[in-house]
Amino acid sequence: MPGLPEAPQPAPEWIDEMNERERWVRLVGAYGVPADPGDTVLEIAAPAPDARRLGADPLTRAPTVVHVGAFYGSRLWPADRFAAVARQLERSGHHVVFTGGAAERERALAVAEAAGLGPGRVLAGELGLAEFAGVIAHAQLVVSADTGAAHLASAYRRPSVVLFGPAAPEIWGPPPGPHIVLTDATRRRGDAFAATPDPAILAVGVDDVLAAVDALAGQGVAWS
């Protein structure tokens, strides 16, 4: 097709266990397209969330997002653990909101109730993509499995604690930044399409997540 670079000859050799950002940069580089695996920041501005949608009017502090869903069951951290984390974060001064897709709204409502928070904190199923991006972009902290919320937190450089199950974080994990990955590779089953949580994510406990939040604070992240 006119205007497109010629395909490289030979094509780049496939290398197992390569970080995916480096893999794609290597691929487009073979076509003469310059790229940087460290250039991961999303420059597109996201709209600030409406304080009334976040359960506070006016909102005096940025929200802490607990994203309760994941596309595959293999990445689902138990709901009672999300609730325990949210409850403790709220007690320590965070303003917690719960996100997820429309199909995850009932799960989010159950987590919010178990955390002692009202349904007004549940945004799952209520946000369009731009609104969802805005909530993440203006969050002070994101707690999520390896899914879209975590990816947006990386792109907007928001502090995050990311729970990994079947995928290896050294290949699929977030770029350098205010992000902490939690998993247990020794227990990884590795079936990304399984209906049940991978043992690697089940090995992560509530105290592990709370300790990671404290570690982010130790790195200079300030909770407003």
| Percent range for β-strand residues | 5-15%
| Structure annotation, total helices | 8
Total beta-strand segments: 5
Structural class: alpha/beta
What is the C-alpha radius of gyration, as a whole number of Å? 19 Å
Q: What is the straight-line distance between the termini?
A: 52 Å
Low-pLDDT regions: none
Mean pLDDT: 88
Element string (H = helix, E = strand)? HEHEHHEHEHEHH
What level of helicity do the residues show?
Answer: 25-40%
Spatial ordering of strands, largest sheet: 2-1-3-4-5
Shape: globular
What would your notes on this structure say?
With 224 residues, the protein is α/β, with parallel strands linked by helices. Helix content is 32%, strand content 10%. It contains eight helices and five strands, in the order αβαβααβαβαβαα. It has a five-stranded parallel sheet, sandwiched between helices. Helix 2 packs across helix 3.
